[in-house]
C-alpha cells in the first residue's frame, strides 16, 4: 500500500510539474478567431543589429552597430550589404544606430541614419541623410551634429511623421543632468525638417528641441499623428510614453508616475507628462512598432515591444482611444535571447532582431501558420 501511495504521489508530482510549467508562461491561450503563430529564424550571423524596418522596396533594411547597413530578402533571408560607414565608432552600446527611409522612397530614395563617431577626440552623435542609388548610399548630408554620445544611454530611434518631420530620440549619454537642460541636445526628442532645417513651430525658436527629460528612449513609432516611445528607467519605471510637444518627461527628477510627494510637486511645477504604462522592476524595453493587421487578429491595435533584459516580445494591447495599455502579453520569453527591434510588413508578418552579440544575432520571422 505504501509503495502504491508513493507511486501515486510521484505521478501526481510529474503531472503537476508538466502542467505548471506549461501554464507559467504569460503567452495567452488561443481563442476562437485567433491566428496560430509560427516563429522561424530568417537570418543568422548578424552582429549587434540595432534597427530593422520594412522598406518600400519590399525588403527589410537593417543597421548593425559596427557601421553596416544591409537589405534582407524576407522570402529567403539572404543579406545584401548596402554600405559600411567607415566613420562610425562603436563604443559600448554606441555605433550605427537608428535609421528611417523617406516616406516617398520610390521618387525620393533618401535614407536617414544616426551614428556615433569621434569628433576631434570627443564621442559624438550626428544625423546624416544619404541617397540610395540602387546599390549603395551616396551623397551624405549632415542634418544635425554635436549631440553628446556615450557607451551607454544614446537612445537613437528615428521616425518620420505624417507631415514629414524627422523625430530623433537621444538619451542623456550617461550624464543625467543634461536631460533637464534645454540647451543640451542629450536627453531629448528632437524634431527637424527632412532637409535639416528647424521647423518654425518647434517649441523654442531655432532649436530642434521637441520634448525633454528623457533618460534613454530606444523605441519610437507613429500611429497616425500620435507618437509613442519606449524608455529605459534606472532601477525602476521603464516607460511607454505618448510624446507631446514641449512636455517634460521628468528624468532625473521623476521616475515613472508622479506618485511621491516630491515628484508631485515637481510635476505640477514643470509640465511633466506621465507614462501610459511603466514596469518595476525594469525589463529594458527597446524598439516598438504598431500592429493593426488582420493577419494576426489578436494583435490588432497593439504596440509590439522588443525587450532586452527580459528577453521577450511584448504585446501591449491599447484601448480604443489609444491612450492606455489594457493588456500585456508575453511571447518567446528566453527563446531567442535579448530582443532589440521589431518591424511589420504590409502583410502583417512580424520581424524581430536580437541583440546577443558575438556574430550570433538573428532575424526572427513571426507569422500565422
From TrEMBL:
Q: One of this protein's Pfam families, by short name?
A: GSDH
> The Glucose/Sorbosone dehydrogenase domain covers which part of the protein?
46-359
User: Protein name, please?
Assistant: PQQ-dependent sugar dehydrogenase
Native source organism of the sequence: Mucilaginibacter pankratovii
| Phylogenetic classification of the source organism | Bacteria, Pseudomonadati, Bacteroidota, Sphingobacteriia, Sphingobacteriales
Amino acid at each position: 500500500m505504501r509503495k502504491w501511495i508513493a507511486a501515486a504521489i510521484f505521478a501526481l508530482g510529474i503531472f503537476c510539474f508538466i502542467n505548471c510549467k506549461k501554464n507559467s508562461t504569460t503567452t495567452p491561450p488561443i481563442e476562437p478567431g485567433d491566428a496560430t503563430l509560427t516563429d522561424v529564424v530568417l537570418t543568422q550571423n548578424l552582429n549587434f543589429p540595432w534597427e530593422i524596418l520594412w522598406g518600400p522596396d519590399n525588403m527589410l533594411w537593417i543597421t548593425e552597430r559596427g557601421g553596416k547597413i544591409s537589405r534582407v530578402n524576407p522570402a529567403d533571408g539572404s543579406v545584401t550589404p548596402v554600405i559600411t560607414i567607415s566613420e562610425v565608432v562603436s563604443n559600448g552600446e554606441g555605433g550605427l544606430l537608428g535609421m528611417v527611409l523617406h516616406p516617398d522612397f520610390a521618387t525620393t530614395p533618401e535614407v536617414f541614419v544616426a551614428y556615433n563617431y569621434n569628433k576631434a577626440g570627443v564621442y559624438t552623435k550626428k544625423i546624416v541623410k544619404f541617397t540610395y542609388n540602387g546599390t549603395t548610399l551616396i551623397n551624405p548630408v549632415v542634418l544635425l551634429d554635436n549631440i553628446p554620445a556615450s557607451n551607454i544611454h544614446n537612445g537613437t530611434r528615428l521616425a518620420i511623421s505624417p507631415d514629414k518631420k524627422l523625430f530623433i530620440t537621444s538619451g542623456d549619454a550617461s550624464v543625467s543632468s543634461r536631460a533637464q537642460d534645454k540647451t543640451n541636445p542629450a536627453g531629448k526628442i528632437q524634431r527637424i525638417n527632412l532637409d535639416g532645417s528647424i521647423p518654425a513651430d518647434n517649441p523654442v525658436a531655432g532649436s530642434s528641441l521637441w520634448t525633454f527629460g528623457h533618460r534613454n528612449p530606444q523605441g519610437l513609432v507613429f500611429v497616425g499623428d500620435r507618437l509613442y516611445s519606449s524608455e529605459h528607467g534606472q532601477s525602476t519605471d521603464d516607460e511607454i510614453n505618448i510624446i507631446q510637444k514641449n512636455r517634460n518627461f521628468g528624468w532625473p527628477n521623476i521616475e515613472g508616475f508622479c506618485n511621491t510627494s516630491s515628484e508631485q510637486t515637481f510635476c505640477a511645477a514643470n509640465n511633466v507628462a506621465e507614462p501610459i504604462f511603466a514596469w518595476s522592476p525594469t525589463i529594458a524595453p527597446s524598439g516598438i512598432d504598431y500592429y493593426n493587421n488582420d493577419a494576426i487578429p489578436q494583435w490588432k491595435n497593439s504596440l509590439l515591444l522588443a525587450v532586452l533584459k527580459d528577453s521577450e516580445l511584448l504585446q501591449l494591447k491599447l484601448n480604443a482611444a489609444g491612450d492606455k495599455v489594457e493588456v500585456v502579453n508575453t511571447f518567446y520569453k528566453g527563446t531567442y535571447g535579448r530582443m532589440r527591434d521589431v518591424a511589420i510588413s504590409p502583410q502583417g508578418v512580424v520581424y524581430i532582431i536580437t541583440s546577443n552579440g558575438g556574430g550570433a544575432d538573428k532575424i526572427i520571422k513571426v507569422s500565422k501558420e
